Structures are given as structure tokens and as C-alpha cells.
Amino acid sequence: MISIAIQSVKQHYSITDRKVLNFLEIFRYMVNHSIRIGLQNDCTTMKRLCMLSYHELEQYDIPSYYKLCAISKAAGILVSRKKSIRRGYLTKNPYVKKPLLISCYGFKYKDGILKIPLGARNYLDVSINHYCKKILSADSRIKIRSFTLTPDTISISYSKEVSQIKCDDTAGIDRNLGNLTIGNCTRVIQFDLSRTVQIAENTKSIYSSFKRNDSRIRKKIYSKYGKRRKNRINQILHKVSKTVVEYAVMNKTALVFEDIRHIRKLYQKGNWQGRQYRGRMNSWSFSEIKRQVEYKARWNGIPIIQLSKKETMGTSSRCPVCGERLRRDMQTRNLSCDVCKKRWDRDVVAIMNQSLRGWVRFAHSKGPADEAMVQKPRSVAMTTDPVILRVDVGKSCLQQEIRQNRSQNVNHSFNDSTI
Question: What pTM was computed for the model?
Fold first, then answer.
């Protein structure tokens, strides 16, 4: 099975030419004009919005393919607004504040130069830095899809065709505030993410230390430290997600995610919880780690299995062997089964159940023959306790192990080919 994986790369690029800045402003006006037309006609689909607003955008002196991209951008904003309204959130009429330029037509990329058309056979030449050129030329299958230009950055979207890896097993991923656990009934790996909690707590203490009563200055400083916290946490999450995907590629395992999208409702005001506890739980970036693992797995051909809300229920409270409800120890995070006489950690129980339920769906998608073949090894694996490996993110020895195994496989294949 061949699928298309998409990624993007960003670099800083400051625009000083006044004509180019005016060009970006015109594109912003077109997006806002399309949004107003969509709001007036209650339209969110790309086709209908294009029919309503394309001729209205003739007043703007800009190449026609930029008009299509502006309508597409407006349609995406209107769809997001419709989803927020459906979920019950109060939303204002959206509009684009910052100047930008988006296009998937007309541009050229050659020898590290991105040529952006400005009309009348005029081009803006953007020099791509060494890091972006290395990524875009890493694989011959990579194709540049589109670009997004702002006054201080440029983002390039690229894609490639990836053949899906034939997986022999599944691995559940359990996301918690202080750790991330991945594994199945044979092996469990737990990543320590307590550093992300410390970074968030330090940023809150810095916020509380500000004494100046000026909303403009406070907003500027809050934005500075907020970006700093986001970058530091995302760097840690990138290391973990990279290691998780490398582990899945090496062991040929499909990744299984649980459905915890509505977990924020557990930590709302009025739930008899402390303010500090709610703040700590609501700063938990469980969606960001999933996003990173998903796009990296898709880029490497690893299938992702998303459990439904019904399938997720009971993953942390049911015995993975007999299915009975586990008894909880109030002093620790351990759970015990009165029927099987076994004792597990709560996170280990969660990923074991996730991997089993994910395999049921994965086997159904492959056919009845594969589903029948896996029943025996699964039952044998459940008789022994899984091996638990705890990994420190800052000093990850798991990545060294993966690289050593990869280099050994390369050496074996090289020796076999020479023989």
C-alpha cells in the first residue's frame, strides 16, 4: 500500500522590499474578503465559496492562481469556525491580521533558490539555507507542494510517496503528564517527561513575579516566555517521538493511540480540584506528542491505529489476561487482579490493553487468516510479565541501541551481498 506523507520546513526570512510587503497585504485583503462572503452566505465548502467569491476578487491586481489560494485559505478558516460552533465554543467572526502569501502554483525551486512569481514576469528570489536544502534534497522522491511567505518567515511544504511497512505486531502508546509509555505484552518502554512539567512550573513562577501594572508590557513579556516554554517542551517531545518511531520501524509494529480528546473536561473549575492541580493538568501537551508521532510514523510508513472512545474505556482498569476489573492500591499506581493473582503498573496495563484492542482492528483489516494466526503467540505472551525499560529523555540510551542494531543490519546485508 502506497500513501503520500506530508511535512514542512520553516526558515527565517525578512522582507524589506515595500512592493513585496504590499503584495502580501493584497493577499490578506483577499482572504478577508472571501471570509466575509462565506459568512454572509453561510458557506464553508471550497467549491461553493469559489463560485461566490472568485469574480468578486477581480478588483485585486494579482495573478489569478493567488485568488484560488486565498479562497482555499478562507475556506479552511470557515471550516474551523464551524467545528468550534458545533462543539459549543463561542467564536467571533474570523479575519486574518498578519500579511501572508500562500500558493501551490507558479513557483519554481532550483539550486537552492525559490522563485516566487509577483506578476508581469517578476519574481522574488528566496535563498534557502543549508538546513532546508539538506532536507529537500535528502530523497529523490520528495516533491515541493506549496509555500507560505510572511514578512519574517517562509515555510515550505513537501511530500513523498511512502510504501507502508508490513507490521507483525502492535504497540500501545499511553500518554501521561510525567511520562509516555509504549509497548505491548512482551516489552514496555517508559520515557520520563517530568522535565516538561518543571519547565511549565518555572514559567508560571516567572509570570507571577511580574509586578508592573501595564497590560501592553505584560503581554509582550508573557509572549516571550510563552514561546520559550513552547520551544523547550517541543524539543523534548521531538526527541521522544523520534525514538518511538525508530523503535516501531525496527520492530515492525503498528502504533495504537487511545481517545482522550475530552479529558480537559475532567479539570474544569467547579470539579472540586485545586487551582494548581488544574493548571498543571491543563498545561499537559498530550495532543502535541500525538501529532509529532503521527506525522513521523506516516513519513516512515508505520500504520497508526486510533481507538474509538468506546474501545478506550477500561484500558487502565481491566485485566489484560482475563478482562476482570482490577483492584487499585491507593498508595501506589499499581493494580492487582484477584482472579489471575497478577500485579501490574497502571501504565503497563493501559498499553497492554491498547495493543491487544488495536491488534483486533489491525487483524480485521488484514483478513481472517492473519487474525487466526496471531491468537496463539498472543496467549503465550500473556503468561509472562513484560520487560519494562525506563528511559531518560536527556540521556536516551535507547536511540544508541536502535542505531547499533541498524548498523549491524546494514553490515550483515553488505557482507551477504559481497559473498
Answer: 0.82
